[in-house]
User: Fold these one by one.
Assistant:
Number 1:
Amino acid sequence: MHRSAAWGHFGVFTLWVALTPASQTTYAQNRERGSSASRRPNVILVMTDDQGYGDLGIHGNAKIRTPNLDALARESVRLTDFHVDPTCSETRSALMTGRYATRVGVWHTVMGRSILQEDETTMAEFFRRAGYRTGMFGKWHLGDNFPYRPIDRGFEEVLAHGGGGIGQTPDYWGNDYFDDTFFHNGRPEKQTGYCTDIFFRAALDFISRHRNEPFFCYLATNAPHGPYRVDPSYSDPYVKAGVPPTMARFYGMITNIDENMGRLLEKLREWKLRDNTIVVFMTDNGTAAGLARRGEKGTWRGFNAGMRGKKGSQYEGGHRVPCFWSWPAGLFARDAEVPHLAAHIDILPTLAELCGLPEPDNEHPWDGRSLASVLRNPQATFPNRTLVVHSQRVDRPQKWRKCSVMRGRWRLVDGKELYDLRSDPGQRRDIASDHPELVTELRQAYEAWWKELEPEFEHMVAFPLGDRRAPSVTLTAHDWHPLPQTRGLPPWNQKMIAQDPATNGYWAVHVKEPGRYRVTLRMRPPSVLYRFRTGRAKLEFRFQDETIEAAADFPSGAQQIDFEVDLPAGSARLHSVVQEAGRSPRGAYFATIRKLDDLGLGATPALHSHDRVVWLGAGLFERMQRHGYTETWLLSRLDAQGVTFRNLGWSGDDVWGTARAVFGTQADGFDRLRRDLVDARPTVVVVQYGANEASDENMSPSTFRAGLLQIVDLIESMGARVILMSPRAREEIGPPLPDPSAYNTRLAKLCNVQKEIARSHALPWIDLFSRTGGRLTDDGVHITPFGYWRLGKRIAEALAGPPQPWLIDLDMRTDALEATGCLITALEKSDHGVTWTAVDRHLPPPPPPSDAPHNARWLLNLGTLRIRHLPLGHYRVVVDGKPLQEARFDAFSFGRTITARPGEEQAEKLRKRVVEKNQLYFHRYRPQNETYLFLFRKHEQGNNAKEVFQFEPLVEKVEQEIERLRRPVAHRWQVVRTRDVRTEP
């Protein structure tokens, strides 16, 4: 789509991005030197939410306590005529792109108009291209789905809430500012503490890890945005000082921010980063709660620095905000003020000049200009300019709606009111009639600005469907566009959703590839139980040339409504209508869409670094955890780092969660399954069901399919990857044990269902039914320890690929050395043998258990040691002082198979820690004897249900040791001649 250029020729804006050759040369030279003292500056950009210009002590607020921010301001250059948009998303989009928010598709905080267009280049992407490490912590509010999330827009490390605030519809359900679950690199992760503390803590961790390389840290707190929640220790002192209750909490949130800023700056000094770090502090719009509300008691009525208006207003109080710049090593002025008109669109061009970032492409020029010259010299001349801010908050922008055209001391509001801020900073006297020529000039500037941006108004940022990078997409009512018959805002927060409003809207989507799609409608996110009343639902995809519709009846108690539709490629409007008995029609607040593909089976699923793998199933997985072989096999095979495992196996369970109900209903069981899964925070879930269902002669494949699909949809809606694994067939042992053929026939049908779901959903499928690699049981049913060892090997091969043979090939007469699977150092040869130090690429697998047959080690095929041209004699292989094996010189020349390897003791320690971790987690999520714990002792030990969660820190502590133990260590090898032999063989 065509993007118009910045419009300097109207005299309103001059694109003035001065990335001087001198600065480019200096930074290039510094980078080549690699000197930490001369490297490009780090950047920390802090932006708070809804804090106004008057909500700081430095600006004259006599009541609020912000000592650290005030101190930062005195160390900084302060932009005293700095402007943003009057609400959240618009400011953030302009900040991230250096371009007007309306130009990049953002002019609202909901209705699908808060999403930054995909073809825009963000500040983080510019920093990444320049070699910076990038992290974002807090509020994004520019899109919660691929490809609009911060993790998709240039940020390597992200910890963020969903939507425009904690508790909004796209946010993790139930968040309330304390001990919330946030999205860490796109995945939900439970956190501990107050939200602002969490985001600052994560930012400090990011800075600490990257302190020896240039970094860009974007720390955008959700505080002090409402709802106004903070520990009373912060708000009570304000209440006692006469501040009204709402404002007291608002001020308390700001004081908490101030404390965190103090800690941040102190850490920078401690790490010797302060001098070469640019710290920018700003806010996203005027105050939201810094003025007293009607009816609230309190002697303090607030402070707005004499400005008119607050958040959302086109008057100065809605968009003039604080902006401090501090860079000790950059020769910025200290405790100085810059009175020139500046705005959020200037931040990126300024940082580009200061940090040597690349320039934008010709299709996306910046609207802002660099402020570097006045940051270094506040008295420097700065070109006069005209800026526009407006607050639309409608689906399609309206000309002259809540706008301010700004030039120097003048403000033209709504195209008709004119104010002179020099004589009337409170904008109380409209003097438009006294300056008709100036009004005309400013109106013409606005007209030119509007004409340039107007082509963007028809464009809707759409959610891609069928993109291979995001096969499953969950949309929320937060991003509904309004239907002609609907009024007001969509249900944009969880409190509204909980009231089940009778409202509707549509999503703008773009089908990337034609094909068959599954659409799942819900009234709550998958982690929250909601049961429909009986009714009927309709689904509509409205393309430009055709409309595709579907309808389905659903029974009472259903938790979701599924459709399968064939869709062409192209842009469409997705709209649903749900009609429940006794309720008014409404749209489904949540929709999950996935393309049903046939990509084939058997592809090895990749486990990525820091994946959190969950085993979800019945008895096989529950018993598997007691031995620890499967995880140990995987940990010894994977290159990925930081992979952790959680076992949710539950004996007797099925796809409906029946066993998890304990003493409740089947619905209770599935609800517990859901809670357990959500609490485990997986990125990958390995699912195995069917063994118990096959024991039920009345279980039909269609019933099994419905239950398994419900689990798959739940997992995918959480953003996790699904891997299906079939159950094992029972082994034919012979009389007197029962004949397993009837059971295996039923199980085969259920395995075919799994295979079909894997094919249609493009999911990896591990087939244990037809291939397990030998006898695993003594009775046909119950697996032996050696059976679990072999089964672990099979599963590890499926998840991590086949093992790579280990090889050391050495020629004693030359320096020829080939080493596969290990690193060889300190090689020393002599007439009596050879020694070397080796570090294996991977830890050896766990040694076979005590019930293994004598030839079990041959299943390992660990590797080969070949030494050519050894002097005549018998030789012993010794590792770390322990004999391994012995053979003649000629046996080594052909190659000796190694069936025992150094590191096996370490592998066995690793397995024992895995078992310990599994036991702790098993107690944490499922106490061994629920009847005893939750019934008979409920009176005397009623808090145990809560206390079992205290196992989690213990689990994580063991996992730290597991990660350490899985790393191979160096071993000293010796091949030493023990005695001579005759020359002839």
Note: The radius of gyration is 33 Å.
Number 2:
Amino acid sequence: MNITNTTKLIEAYLKQGTAHAKQNEWERAISCYQKITEIDPTNAIACHHWADALLNLERWEEAIATYHRAITINPNFDWSYYNLADVLVRLERWEEAVHAYQKAFDLNPSLPSIYQKLGNAFLQRSLANRKEMFVLHHQVLRDNPHDIERYHQAIELQPRDAKLYLGLGNALVANHKLDEAIVAYQMALQLQPDYAEAQFQLDKILKFQLEETLTEGSPESNRQENIQSNIELTKEDEISQAVQGTPPFKRGSVQGKGAIARRTSVPVGSIMPLAGGGRDSFAPRGSLTLFGSGSSFEHATPDPRGLSNSFHSPSRADLNFVKLKQAKNILDNLNQIALDNFLLTNTQIHLPQVEQPQVSIILILYNRAELTLSCLYSILRNNFKSIEVILVDNCSSDRTRKLLERIQGAKIILNEENKHFLLACNQASQVATGNYLLFLNNDTQILGDSIKIALETIRSSPDIGAVGGKIILPDGTLQEAGSIIWCDGSCLGYGRGDDPKDPKYMFRREVDYCSGAFLLTSRELFLKFGGFERAYQPAYYEETDYCVKLHKAGKKIIYEPNVTILHYEFASSSCSDRAIELQKRNQQIFVERHRDWLQFQYSPDLSKILFASNRNTCRRILFIDDRIPHPYLGSGYTRSHGILARMVRLGYCVTFYPTDLSYLEDWNDIYADIDREVEIVTDSGLEGLEKFLLTKKSYYDIVFVSRPHNMNHLNYLSARNKNLLRGMKVIYDAEALYTLRQFEQRRLKGETISTEEQKKLIAEELDLARQSDCIIAVSALEKQRFIECGYNNVIVLGHALNPIPTPNSFYQRQHILFVGSIYELESPNADSILWFSKEIFSLIQAELGQEVNLLIAGNNTVEEIKRQIEQFNNDSIKMLGKVDDLKDLYNQARLFIAPTRFAAGIPHKVHEAAAYGLPVVTTSLIAAQLEWEDEIDLLVADSSKAFAQQCVKLYQNNQLWERLRLNSLKKIESQCSPEYFTKTLKQILKY
């Protein structure tokens, strides 16, 4: 048979097979396709259709083999892979199905529903793998029910399986990890509230922990025996429990469900009972955590025994409790070792003895001598020495008295009865001689220069009544960063469990009150108010009451983030009904005494925490710019720094939001020249701006945006979410019209820009301001551009500078100075320096001699600039980099150069040079931006030769130099008045 006849015969069988398939006559269709493959074994299409027919007959294995045959003949047959995958899905052979769909997708992404089918195959493969792994974990756990890690792996696969959490709890008990076991049992009960076995196990542990707390002083060996005798599991019990849910505790040890309550009952409106060293048998300072009546949130501080208020998922709160307890155990061991060594070696502590101390540190002691020793060591490590230490021992029963015998230089009061915290503090204040009192828990450690910083803070303003700081727990998390008082008298420590270095805890702010774990206040004020109010004795609410009294007297309570202490918390006391009753009673006393003040506080609602955390009631500003505005950065940041500083002085609450996160700084560098009252968001950037605004809805009154690209992004976000900026005024600080700079730059490169293109580009940049309530221009010229485009809400805000002319005379000066930062090779400053160094400076030296130096000061992050200047081989060009104080350079220089060939806005460097009394040679572009006159206020030139001639002329002419110096200083007085700058900014912010 010739090729033509063969082809015709194949086509005929194919047509016939297709007709049978349409009639669902699959066997006849298969017969046709088989005949084709007998004629041509390499016919992939026939194999494919044959497989399709087998698929419809649900002859799965045959279909798979035939699709594979088609694919072998034609590896690029997308439909064969696609249909093969469908068959494999029916057989739940997910791994093979994923592979087949992936091949089909690679060959033809347009196949019907390929994305959905591939995604589903991926999901089913994952579920199958999880199921297989779960069976494996289950088998392993039957043989080894103590395998904690295996339980965690199984829970990852089946997170809603209450039995797994029950088994995990049993494994944790077997490994003596009781706190973690509590969390596991609680999770089981969260998933299945009526799970009797989990409740039984939880009750058993809680009973054991309560008994252990009551016998806290028993030797460790006895405690381990108690664990083994009370919570011992047999292997058979554990296997049964892990698989079937049978209680693993020794039968008969506790009868029935509910042997001990699974939570501590806390009346609504009360303080959670807490334990600690400072309050003797009550809670420590800084541990007040309250509920408001009808409040919608639970306390942030976990119960000291690990009892949660309700059975909830063991998320951060429960897991953090376990982590915290582990950290405390480590700390306990270290402190006990230190105390043992201190007492065994007859060591002594010598505290400073100062005749007129600035600060009297008051520590109230009740047991926990090891923590007291650690606290005293931290005081000794502190650099601030103008202190006296007053120790009041409330009849401790441990080794505290032995410790006190080894302390020299302290005032020690030994009470023969427990006066508790309040009365003991008042007692100590009567013998204090320092100007300030520092109430300090004995279970704290002072970190860094906290005493000195707190003292500097309280002295910084006469209206500051008390200063507190950041309190960090042993696990490194935050206990509080200032505290909130709600309108019902309940309280909340701000930031519990968070990262202490989170930006929202790194700025100074006024708060409702600060914890007595570290509270610095004036001794005169404290005594004037009669000390802590006796109505609150023996403890609770005394420092809260004192801080409110300070508020009523017109004083502020300041949270200072650089004041940092490590706080053990819950040091020596246990939870008790007595503590709960005291807290309830004292809250009521507090409310009765300060009802007039409380009526202006926020209601207890988590959604109000952000507002309540800062008592500054002035308007709030979100300031958006590329970088944190350090003055040394130049490029408009000097001006931004001035704006930011004045916002703070005007009383605004400011958050600064840098959009460019490529410039990483540590907190010391960040606040080196930024007011500590400014919150700086260092972890979000431009990509995180929308999320940030969503989390702070209705919080800010003003959004102040600098630079076009930031405004463009804000416009995009606002268009996408119409409610994003609701209630906020948008102020656009244009800073400079960058399009104008681009025009000049392109002209330098020889490009021709049509008038139509210029108008179009300018209109696009100006259009960014359409949604703004107010527009700021840096000069009258740029304001005019906005007005020409129909804007009438434009205000000019230039620079703020005081004239501070440097003293050297004309003849005492020698050098030529340039000041400016360089961050890009294509920037105006980079072009200025390279042009001047290459084409102009050699002409000047030819006239004036080699002894004239060109001094270049300012940040330079572009290595290419340095490399090119080094190629000039001119030792008289000095690249100085960043110079912290420029006064000496201005005093040594005879003239300042600004050879700027493209730029926008208004040049701060020229204003600054003029303010220092240094005459300037610049280009006509800069002179026009400044609106200064050539030969009167400065000298102007645009070509290399002319610029060199102007520099030589100014360098040699004393009379010209004096005239320009005097006139430019007058310009600074009239155009850069700080008073006018502040007045204008105030007008803008009230727009």
Note: Confidence is low (pLDDT under 50) at residues 216-278, 283-316.
Number 3:
Amino acid sequence: MLSKGFLCLILVITLTTQLNTTTTAQPVTTITGTILAPDCSPYAGANIACRQHNGIGTPVKSDEYGRFTLTLESQHCNIIIYADEPVTPGYDYLPVEIYQRLATGNNLTVKLVEAGTVEFTGFVQYVDSEGFPTDYVYVLDVADPVPGISTLDTYSTDHARCFQLPGNEDHCIIVPLGSTNVLIESKTSSLGVDVYRGFPVTVEVQIPGERNVVDLTVPAINYNIQRVEAVLADVELFLDEMEAKGFYLAKEHGDLEAAEASLRDSMILINDGSSVEGYVGLKSSYLKIRQIQLNLQMFEADSVPSVYILLLFLAVSSASYGFFSSEKNYLQFTVGSLTYAVATLVLKTVYPGSNLVDTSTYWLSAAASLLLVYLVAFLAPIMLGRRRSSRGVGLGVLLAPVFSIAKRSLKRRQLRFILMFISVLVLTSGFVSLTSFSGEYGVSGKMIHRVASSGVGVLIRSSKWSVVNTLGLELSQTEVAWLGSLEEAEAVSYKYCSTANTNHVCTISSPYEPYFKAFKGVIAFNSSLEQQVMPLNETLVEGRLPVIGEVAFSSKAKHFLQVDVGETVTIRGKDYVVSGIFDDDTLEKLREYDYTDYLPEYLWRDANDYVLNVTVPAESTLFFDISEAQRFNLLLMRIAVKPKEDTDLNQLAERIALERGYHTWTGTQTGSTMYWQGTYYAGKGAALIIPYTIVMLNMITTILNALHERRNEITVLSSIGLNPSHIMGLYTAEAAVTGFMAGGLGYLVGITLYWVAPLLGFSFMVEQKVSGLWSLATVGIAVSSVVAGAYVALRSSVVVTPSLLSRWRILKPEGFLEPYVTVVPVKLSPESVDGFAGFMVKRLEAEKVNPLRVTSLVKLTAEGERRVIRFYHKALIFNEYFYTSNRLVVDLGAGWEFPVRLLSFGDSEWCVETGSLVRLFAMEWSNQQK
């Protein structure tokens, strides 16, 4: 005797075979069939509808015999069949979909399959994004027993992608009895780009019509663990590849070990049920690992350009060695070239960026760099020698003599040169191998105020908010639910404010017509929550905070409007009951947790038409219930979280900033601390600033001693017309030669230490300097120590006159009949004026017998404290026309830094010549005073 189940199976197979044999029939406008229960009995009340695109038409129901007749609405639609028992909490049967081409005919028979409903809850978060997923797609892994009849296996919260069955809610799916694998796909935003993530979860339903709830928090965290582990494996492989190319990555290995330790701790917390703390650690680990990955990518990309910078730097250093080695040009070229060959060979061996450059390109670039340096060294004196300024002889004209004198000076003072050379070498090599400043990504915090706020808690603002640009928050319902689920929070209050504007937001008519009161600011909140996070009740003098249909304002506004608590006012055509009156002074002193004003802002134009952000006065602010926020177009400016007792505020603020990317502030009685997610700089080897400072002081001391030692030499150079810049150029040239020579060798020593350290079994926990920026910084460090020392020492010294701080310059006339003005760099006391004037007259009188250019009609006049010497300066040579009319003015009462000025009428070049003569006489007078 055949069993009932076997007969049911034969019936279904027979009907399906007949269905398949009719696939070639012509389309019809109606379909008839029978719906069977799981026990093969007729099923009444099933819904049969036509599905087209992402919607379904009006369904028909099966009768008591399970039969139905469906009129097709289109020739291009499928058949959807679904059924449910209303007495159970979930769907009782799996919906099925039949392709139209297989459903054509009058003998369609479908057997329902028992099922239940699964509802997904919880917060799905991804370590590589800040926002919650906005849309979900749930895909069931269900095998279709009969070809052409498929289970409805895709559900979506985005109905444009997938239609939802009538009565079935978002985040709910219908699954067969037993265990079912479901793929959770979701859309989220990462760095402004929509990305899709998916992870599997297994659900179970044992009773038909059962409704089970599945929390996706833990499965999502498990997916995040897998994602972090995958990124970790990629970074480990990347590290090995980079080390094979010669990169020194000891710091990256250390950072990766720290991230792995954090990952292990997070997994322990998750396994112990502390999913919140575990996720925070998990995201922190991901950010660290991801930062290492980005750094490695930057190393690889930046190391190639830095090669060319270093080749040029070493070319200058090598040319400096050649220049220092000999006076003969061919020997300078030979020594410089040989030194450069050795330097580039070392760079090729120990610098990883060199290995990423094609060998032929590397050596061609090296040759071009050396050729460029020699070409500049050869052409610079020639080109600069052709330039002449109307203000005198520039330093560029004397470039070659300056460097020649500097070289001889270094050779004469070998001990001083050797000490400076070693100092710069050690400094440069230490900077290269022992220091690093790297960009890290994570949560940063800093104390911004040390003044108590008006409450204690955590303040949340948009990541784009600033004091100048007060942008509001945009929250999804999921984010609101997440904030409400914070275990550490006792209350979460949302404060909506009006945006800063030059116009008022609304008005209230006064009983004294035609006057009305304009209000520039509006605040809306939930009174029961807001009074928990801010002491608003303490600011009330009458009544209470507003609820739905009520408004509150300040005492001054009440006095103007002449209304009392309980009376009605009309605002934008709607009546509101006055619920409370605030004290103006107390309200204006109220501060948020970040110590900004509690009241909103408006834009104020000052007398110069500048627009400024100004806090709205209390008398011009209205307070409503949060339900009025949309009516007044208010923005969510901040969220305040009142913590439970014994909650670590800093830890809570840091967690919110890390998980959601908000800017957070902690408000306490001792001050406010801000937390944000972003890039910060981490430094290694900062203690090197101590020897760097010592080197700088050593340079200054050495050059000051040299200044004292070479006092007579500087006096001679000054007396013959050299500017302080010319004299400083000598010392700067010495410093530059020393810096480039020692800096080039120091850099090679520093990068060689990276290469040698692993061989000797120790490591430096710093980032290898492979970028172009670091290369330029190294060049600067190499030269700046001695150049800065020379500059500071010379600028701070007074060896001939107090005038070395002033440049030898001539000021052009402002008008056609105005004179050229030459500042004579001497400083005089009142008692030395007559002596200086007499000396200058005597020296000018002596030039009357000059065979080339003479002075004439020298005359001294006294006008109170002012002394004026008038004279003419002209040429005696027949074929040269040279003539200037001059006044040398000594005026102590003018308040000038240098009270001696020469006023000259004539051609600019003639005035420069006369100024040089007067300056030489002034130098002679200065030397006699010492």
Note: Residues 1-7, 9-27, 389-397, 796-806 have pLDDT under 50 and may be disordered.
